[in-house]
Amino acid sequence: MTVKKILSPANEFLKKAAKLKQKKYRDEFGLFVTEGERSCREAAESGFVVDCIVMTERFFESHEREFAGFNRIVTTDKLFMTLCDTKTPQGVLAVVKVPEERELTGNRYIYCDGIQDPGNAGTMIRSADAFGFSGVIFSAGSVDVFSPKVIRASMGSVFHIELKTLAGAEFLEQAKRGGYFISASALHGKSVDIHNMTVLKKQIFVIGNEGNGVSKEILKQSDEIVHIPMSGAAESLNAGVAASILMFEVSKHE
């Protein structure tokens, strides 16, 4: 694999990579960026296709043998900063190809119905990885799963599990026909305490939008509606926290 030094701000690759901070260019180029040594290592060891590793001159001098199996680009601190979303980068990032979407192949998934907050999305991906879920599905209108903030919040788990985007009500109907049981998390008159909820081998658990909850359309599609009992005065739980509690409860049935 090659090592290429780029010192000019007019370089076409650097200009292209800098655009990946915006969703429209991630969609156009089919690429995204992950920053930091740990995250780059996770990407390198995953099934994702790493287009290249970009390093500062200083990082390369002290880590010359790292990522030797990939094309590497070395550049100045100033030019490297134009590619970063963080204010204090570690001097290394990976440009990674967005994986092709495929049919569901696993057993248990979290379905994000209009989740907007990158922190919540990253937390759900991380928790799904921790509690043995197959993946996380994002509805149309949800946050971009390959945005820098989601990638950081997932702490590398984005490279460990299945991810699906732009799913909708029709997707859930198809999943039901494929044998998946749909459970939606909502405060509802007919909802079941999560300690008594149905837990099956093939199941999708729906977490709703931070402000509006699960959509009425998806509630109608659901086979069961569940809630997390609360003894305090809080009106509701953070979406990422609620999903994590639910996944932990499901994991206890293994």
Q: What order do the helices and strands come in, and which of them pair?
A:
Elements: E1 3-5, H1 12-19, H2 23-29, E2 31-35, H3 37-45, E3 50-56, H4 57-62, E4 72-75, H5 77-81, E5 92-97, E6 108-113, H6 118-130, E7 135-139, H7 148-154, E8 162-167, H8 169-177, E9 181-185, E10 192-193, E11 203-208, H9 216-221, E12 224-227, H10 239-251
Parallel strand pairs: 1-4, 3-4, 6-7, 6-11, 7-8, 9-11, 9-12, 10-12
Antiparallel strand pairs: 2-5, 3-5
Helix pairs in contact: 6-7, 6-10
Question: Can you walk me through this structure?
Answer:
The chain is α/β, with parallel strands linked by helices. It is 33% helix and 23% strand. The protein has ten helices and twelve strands. The strands form two sheets. A seven-stranded parallel sheet has the order 8-7-6-11-9-12-10, with helices on both faces. Strands 1-4-3-5-2 form a five-stranded mixed sheet. Strand 6, helix 6 and strand 7 form a beta-alpha-beta unit. Helix 6 packs parallel to helix 7 and helix 6 runs parallel beside helix 10 (239-251). The protein is elongated, with a radius of gyration of 20 Å. The N and C termini lie far apart (44 Å). The model has no long low-confidence stretch (mean pLDDT 94).
